[in-house]
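Supplementary Methods. Inverse-folding protocol.

Structures were first reduced to a discrete structure-token string of length 361. This string, shown here, constituted the complete conditioning input.
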């Protein structure tokens, strides 16, 4: 890690594009993305230079073919150094306090002598232009920490695209020596499943709810959680938070046992007042040790790699299919027949695939 603390508002830490500037080390003049050689990228990443790390991530996010080619080479070279972090998924509806939580929790991680990268999965950015990490004022204390790296997900991208890029970014962050990686997502829609399939630990943040109904959290998301934290357990919210956590403890007991051998927990915390965060951290550490000891940690990573291989193949096949000129020509006609009920979707699908196969033979 660099020694000199960066100035506030340096664009380095919440890095977005290739115009990333460094206030950290004046002696280091960042080159434009195009100017760095593969070896310079690797050296920079391996020596935890966040400017170079940011630039490499920019390559991953770029749609230009030459950037993609270089990005894949960088990833390949970084792979042997990857895998050594604890990957934590964090989800919760907007307003639950995710940014505030990361800010407080990040400090707990730093106090324990470790470092942290924060990445985001935000498919909603297509419509909200990257809102999830857009306003990171609540992470301000973290952004000035030299041992922290924060990266929003690219705006205007599909979930599949963001997920692939996030997975590749994890590899680079690990090669840069980050031993904790938080992957943040908004608790709406499909993104939790994508995040769950790339993390070791899944943390769900909820609000205190004084009513006796469980919040409208889908059972599937609750099943994924290794820990449910009821945030905003402060002031008048404390009693409600305690009650909510009790309800979730009961609900968690009713769920089937996890393959990890870990029993999901429900805790209360106040991200604002930094209470309960140490306990959550020690739970996560406990989980880490338990799953390493019982072999689940390694097994799960292997399963995830298999899953992402399959995902990658289907994504590429889909792209090839829809970009095929013959398919492009025929698709709308066949689609119209399907809509009007003249052709079943399955027959139509088969027809299109036959056509596609002919093109690729
Ligand atoms: P996000 O949208 O999930 O990232 O939520 P934010 O971190 O932006 O927080 C939303 C609002 O909730 C802000 O006004 C925070 O100050 C407030 N907030 C976050 N954590 C707490 C907490 O522990 N207690 C209280 N009382 N407010 C909190």
């Amino acid at each position: 890690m660099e020694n000199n603390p960066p100035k506030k508002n340096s664009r380095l830490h919440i890095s977005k594009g290739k115009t990333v500037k460094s206030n950290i080390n004046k002696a280091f003049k960042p080159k434009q993305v195009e100017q760095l050689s593969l070896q310079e990228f690797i050296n920079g990443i391996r020596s935890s230079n966040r400017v170079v790390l940011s630039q490499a991530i920019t390559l991953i996010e770029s749609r230009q073919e030459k950037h993609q080619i270089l990005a894949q080479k960088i990833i390949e070279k970084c792979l042997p150094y990857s895998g050594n972090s604890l990957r934590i998924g964090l989800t919760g509806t907007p307003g639950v306090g995710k940014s505030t939580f990361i800010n407080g929790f990040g400090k707990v991680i730093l106090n324990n002598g470790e470092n942290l990268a924060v990445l985001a999965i935000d498919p909603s950015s297509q419509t909200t232009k990257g809102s999830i990490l857009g306003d990171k004022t609540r992470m301000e204390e973290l952004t000035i920490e030299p041992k922290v790296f924060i990266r929003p997900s690219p705006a205007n991208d599909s979930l599949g695209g963001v997920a692939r890029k996030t997975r590749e970014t994890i590899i680079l962050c690990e090669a840069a020596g980050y031993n904790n990686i938080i992957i943040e997502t908004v608790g709406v829609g499909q993104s939790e499943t994508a995040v769950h399939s790339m993390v070791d630990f899944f943390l769900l943040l909820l609000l205190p709810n004084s009513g006796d109904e469980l919040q409208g959290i889908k059972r599937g998301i609750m099943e994924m959680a290794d820990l449910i934290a009821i945030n905003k357990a402060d002031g008048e919210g404390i009693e409600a938070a305690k009650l909510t956590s009790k309800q979730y403890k009961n609900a968690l007991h009713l769920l089937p046992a996890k393959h990890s051998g870990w029993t999901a927990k429900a805790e209360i915390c106040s991200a604002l007042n930094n209470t309960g965060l140490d306990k959550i951290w020690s739970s996560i550490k406990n989980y880490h040790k338990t799953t390493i000891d019982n072999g689940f940690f390694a097994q799960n990573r292997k399963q995830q790699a298999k899953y992402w291989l399959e995902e990658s193949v289907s994504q590429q096949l889909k792209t090839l299919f829809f970009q095929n000129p013959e398919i492009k020509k025929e698709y709308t006609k066949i689609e119209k027949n399907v809509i009007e009920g003249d052709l079943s979707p399955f027959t139509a699908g088969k027809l299109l695939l036959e056509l596609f196969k002919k093109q690729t033979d």
